[in-house]
Amino acid sequence: MSQLTPAPDAWNFAPDEALLGLSALSVRSVLGSIKAGMDPSSDRPVIPLGHGDPSAFPCFRTAPEAVEAVSAALHSGKHNSYPTGVGLEPARRSIARHLSLDLPYELSPDDVYLTSGCSQAIEIVCSVLAGRPGAHNILLPRPGYLFYEARAAFNGMEVRYFDLLPDSDWEADLGAVEALADRNTVAMVLVNPGNPCGNVYSYDHLAKVAETATKLGIFVIADEVYAHLTFGKNPFVPMGVFGSVAPVLTLGSVSKRWVVPGWRLGWIVTNDPNGVFRRTKLVESIKSYLDISCDPATFVQGAIPELLANTKQEFFDKTVEILRQTADICWEKLKGISGITCPSKPEGSMFVMVKLDLSCLQDIKDDMDFCCKLAKEESVVVLPGCAVGYKNWVRITFAIGPSSLEDGLDRLKSFCSRHSETKK
């Protein structure tokens, strides 16, 4: 019997530098590096202010109607088979009906494509855009969710960043968008409500975004995974409202509003009354990609119609009220911490961005050093700004239990006070 003898290095599976660099862009990787330096023998409870998953806290438990919908789907015995590539028709129909409530036109099930969470929706969109003939680029917000850059770069597509303006409630710098775009630009990404900034865009600003996209001949990728999680002056307005001005790909999921990120059910929706995506065969490309990708669990798809129809408004109101309270706690406590500046009160999502004044902080080199030392000394985990493309800022989540948040922010204050003392 012959024995397989691989050529030298043929079975060397060490990731190349490019893949390592892309992995380093992930929030998971950055938080893992920070936690690795913590003292495992410490008896202080860890306060997780760097994550985007509040589901571990009882006050953020999902709606009982959602649990019942999944249970019923499992017990029915009707959802044990493979689904179609685009997703089960009843689920797509119910999502289309649900999203149409906020739009001036009706979506159809054919406008909805189910994905394994919003992350896979990003992966699919970036892969489809990169697969078009010729060199293309995509415009991304800074600060922003770097998973977009990782997926675009993985597919060989160029990314260009436009700034969000902290002194203007994190509005997009549309002048920069126009300056960055060229004939090879295909789309711009807008996250609303904002991760990592906690902002909510006004109707007027979104209208200007649509006008800018039309002027440039590009479309908008609207990441609305935090849809309706708003508690400030601006109500949530879906970008799809302006779909007749500029075509919009809306990405969303049940992860945040229902507080079930582990259920992995997301979607891509074509908000395109003028049929641009069909004429340019983008829809055809999305379907083709879905044929060779993994699907969200069929029983979760099967639960979607009941989940959407039966979840009571009281559940959503309670979630938003808790976020309003914790955002207030965060805003008030951050005011009294030396070495930190918060440019605006968060009005949506689960996060706020704060700027570090390194000139006031002794022995702190940068945002990553700040986060590593904070975790080690105080057992408080926050996300460094480098993980969202904003050096020497940090992102703090307030989507945890109020008492834990107060404890974490008090520890943050102690840390900053200690490191602000002038050394003799």
UniProtKB/TrEMBL annotation:
<dbReference type="InterPro" id="IPR015422">
    <property type="entry name" value="PyrdxlP-dep_Trfase_small"/>
</dbReference>
<keyword id="KW-0663">Pyridoxal phosphate</keyword>
<comment type="function">
    <text>Involved in biosynthesis of mugineic acid family phytosiderophores.</text>
</comment>
<dbReference type="GO" id="GO:0030170">
    <property type="term" value="F:pyridoxal phosphate binding"/>
</dbReference>
<protein>
    <recommendedName>
        <fullName>nicotianamine aminotransferase</fullName>
        <ecNumber>2.6.1.80</ecNumber>
    </recommendedName>
</protein>
<dbReference type="InterPro" id="IPR004838">
    <property type="entry name" value="NHTrfase_class1_PyrdxlP-BS"/>
</dbReference>
<dbReference type="GO" id="GO:0033855">
    <property type="term" value="F:nicotianamine aminotransferase activity"/>
</dbReference>
<comment type="similarity">
    <text>Belongs to the class-I pyridoxal-phosphate-dependent aminotransferase family.</text>
</comment>
<dbReference type="GO" id="GO:0006520">
    <property type="term" value="P:amino acid metabolic process"/>
</dbReference>
<feature type="domain" description="Aminotransferase class I/classII large">
    <location>
        <begin position="45"/>
        <end position="410"/>
    </location>
</feature>
<feature type="modified residue" description="N6-(pyridoxal phosphate)lysine">
    <location>
        <position position="256"/>
    </location>
</feature>
<dbReference type="Pfam" id="PF00155">
    <property type="entry name" value="Aminotran_1_2"/>
</dbReference>
<dbReference type="InterPro" id="IPR004839">
    <property type="entry name" value="Aminotransferase_I/II_large"/>
</dbReference>
<dbReference type="InterPro" id="IPR015424">
    <property type="entry name" value="PyrdxlP-dep_Trfase"/>
</dbReference>
<dbReference type="InterPro" id="IPR005958">
    <property type="entry name" value="TyrNic_aminoTrfase"/>
</dbReference>
<keyword id="KW-0808">Transferase</keyword>
<dbReference type="InterPro" id="IPR015421">
    <property type="entry name" value="PyrdxlP-dep_Trfase_major"/>
</dbReference>
